Amino acid sequence: MSVAFRRESDEEHKEPKFELPLPPGPNMVTARGLALIEAKVAELEAAVAAGGEEEVLEGLKRELRYWNTRRTTAQIAPAPEEGVVGIGSRVRIRMAGKERVIDLVGHDEADPSADRLSFQAPLAKALIGAEEGEKVDFAGKPAAIEIIGIETIPD
Length: 155
Prior knowledge:
- It comes from Sphingomonas kyeonggiensis.
- By secondary structure, the protein is an alpha/beta fold.
- It has three helices and seven strands; from the N terminus they run E-H-H-E-E-E-E-H-E-E.
- The protein has two domains: about 20-75; about 90-150, Chitinase A, domain 3, CATH 3.10.50.30.
- The longest helix has 20 residues, at about 30-50.
- The chain is elongated, with a radius of gyration of 22 Å.
């Protein structure tokens, strides 16, 4: 029989499952971000311990490996200097005539729809290091953003 017509098992025809990609750069987090990572690890460990279908368990284990790596590499960002934007800052800005409040956080706790931006996002990068009252360049436009206020994100 031709090799083309024989099939040892369905396993040899499955697509490989790769590990979840890790974001590049340091894993800077806020205290809240580290707590969220810890909670996610505990949730996944409980789900794996509960058992279930093998395929579902493999997916959970894969996700658990990702979150364990994130927990291991997490570095709590130092508190930003008073009056200077950094990771853990809540920043009130004016951009294109509109005011907006943005929290600068670690990658895993970012939620752009809730104005929680990763410190690696282009807008966050433009703001980090700026001071209250300063105007910063963004998207190729000089003085595109005005920093109106800076405070530490409340717990």
